[in-house]
Amino acid sequence: MTQLRSLERLLPPPNPHWVGNGFHVHHFFPGNGGPSQERMSPFLLLDYNSFADLPPSDLPRGVDVHPHRGFETVTIAYRGRIAHHDSAGNSGVIGEGDVQWMTAGSGVLHKEYHELDFTRRGGPFHMVQLWINLPAAHKMHAPRYQEIRSENMGRLPLNRGFAEVIAGSCAGIIGPASTFSPVHLLNLRMDADDRFEWALPSNYHVALLAISGKSVLQGDRELSQDHFALLGKDGEGILVESRMPNTTILLMAGEPIDEPIASYGPFVMNTQSEILQAFEDFHSGKFGTLQGE
Ligand code: MN
Fold first, then answer.
1. How far is the centre of ligand 1, averaged over its atoms, from the C-alpha of 204 (Å)?
2. What domains sit in the chain, N to C, each tagged with a CATH number?
3. CA of residue 190 to ligand 1 center, whole Å
4. If both were cysteines, with which of 65, 69, 194, 218 could 107 make a disulfide (CB 3.0 to 4.6 Å apart)?
């Protein structure tokens, strides 16, 4: 019999703030009353743009050119479309249900905008950006992108709905994303009175974000839309029971990377001197160039 994990933290969405002019996000961690980067490792940051119905606009919406080094950014488009461009000449668009997994590694400049036609048309927008740390040995990996279309995700049937496996694996179903440390990233797409049960080693960090609907966690704790739950490390078991149709839950789990974290703005390294080096490399043009909007 698997010991259920406790529910360690249940957080309502914090007051949102703007990232550029395109992302109005609830910042669940780090800081802001949420768990620390050490407690969430390998996850570094969670920004959540809850559902918004955007009016049409002729002005671009997004975040202009900025650098990253030392980690990965994972952007999940539940609704709406996002375009990106970077200093290595890469660009792409992710649409509804898709995920962009960007390894910043040794460093990129990029910009993240709502796709132009979507901006002009307006419409539903619902988005997650999750930052995932890289082990020290891979922080200077060459930048790369994985564009993960919803149809390419692993699909695990539940009683009535299904789970999409984006990264890692669950019950033998493997996700397409390649990761540098053990990470499991799943969308639980549940119908009413559906059930998801899983066990992960107790040292793994496990958290859930309710994208839509209503569910009960760990047998007796209600999880409402836009709330975040951190499970304890006092067991292995994870139990999610949906209470509404169209209940979608993002489940993030991973083995902690047991290394020091030196984090400053868009750079996440292991030591202060590596952060200074990142600034120096950024200012001396080693991240390349990219035209702003
Ligand atoms: Mn970025």
1. 26
2. 7-283 (2.60.120.10)
3. 30
4. 69
